[in-house]
């Protein structure tokens, strides 16, 4: 049988199937629903399924009716792939629809050919390779479209979540989503246990806490992120009280630079204040070694955070000329003073703690006293020293003199 005769016979088969298109599409739909559990659910309606199958079969029949054409119209599978991606249909199940449908379509062609006689069957078998190559082209087009739609959806979701995190840390503006709506979209409770992280990027090549989400999921921790030049911000919601240490261990395992963590807070509308704590905690660490620090939720911490300039002036007044000593000498005196206070003023206990002689402790405390506003026998001087040591212990940068306290201007908004 000549090529021309083959083409004519296949064209006759196409004409016969085109007249039965609706019947064939219904049969395909019944097969899909019977074989694939996902399509028995209400997500993809029967009309939607029939419409997608009908357009694809129609394009195939049109292509076979013009055997000289090399162009293949893949608009139908491309549209289906995109739509199923947004409907949340699993890609393997969507591709299985095409395999089942093409098998059903081939059976219909073969049955029609056998009914038409031996010559039609031979013509169909001679064209089989071309028909099944169409199945491959259609499946590829559907897969590409599906994946592009998923990537687009993920990008849109990431942008949306990033915008919501920005609104959380900056505070909602007029016309923006309410905090309740933000919580719903992010999958957060409005009231719960939250922590804000600010993580410094060690390089521009990778995020500063790469792999953290994978470590947080087994802990039941949800996260929302906002990437910024030089650092990332994350808002975490903890599944239960007291789970902070496990979260911080996960953060330490992933940290490539400095990471600051806020104290745990209870309501999402406190996120801007929590971010400020996280920023100060990060900036109080000495670069470039990776480290994680969480500020304690204490009255002193809150007092210092809200009165940075006042606290710095108070520390300068209490410690006086001690701050101008060489760093090694200043550190030695401050370390001794902390141990002395913890020992309730006992030189003997302090000496045991520091592994030195009691006379060394007394000498150092006498040296320290020379820089204070009075003798250590005065309870007010001891109280001032204790407060100053707690402040510089919590915020080491108070010992320095940057142009702005702790490296940033109060009330500034960098995010």
How would you describe this structure to a colleague?
With 415 residues, this protein is of the alpha+beta class. 61% of the residues lie in helices and 9% in strands. It contains 16 helices and 6 strands. Strands 1, 2, 3, 4, 5 and 6 form a 6-stranded mixed β-sheet that branches. Strand 2 and strand 3 form a beta hairpin. The longest helix has 53 residues, at 118-170. Residues 401-415 have low confidence and may be disordered.
Strand and helix layout:
Elements (H helix, E strand, L loop, with lengths): L2 H17 L1 H15 L10 H20 L9 H13 L3 H26 L1 H53 L8 H8 L4 E10 L11 H5 L5 E7 L2 E8 L5 H11 L3 E4 L3 E3 L3 H13 L7 E4 L4 H8 L1 H12 L7 H16 L4 H8 L3 H12 L9 H16 L21
Parallel strand pairs: 4-6
Antiparallel strand pairs: 1-3, 1-4, 1-5, 2-3
Helix pairs in contact: 1-3, 1-5, 1-6, 2-3, 2-5, 3-4, 4-6, 5-6, 6-7, 12-16, 13-14, 13-15, 13-16, 14-15
What descriptive keywords fit this protein?
6 strands; alpha+beta; six-stranded mixed sheet; 16 helices; about 425 residues
Order of helices and strands: HHHHHHHEHEEHEEHEHHHHHH
Radius of gyration: 36 Å
- How many beta-strand segments? 6
SS-based structural class?
alpha+beta
Poorly predicted runs are 401-415
Q: What is the rounded distance between the termini?
A: 75 Å
Strand content: 5-15%
Largest sheet: 6 strands, mixed
Globally, the shape reads rod-shaped
Helix count, DSSP H or I runs of 4 or more residues? 16
Q: Helicity range of the residues?
A: 55-70%
Mean pLDDT: 83
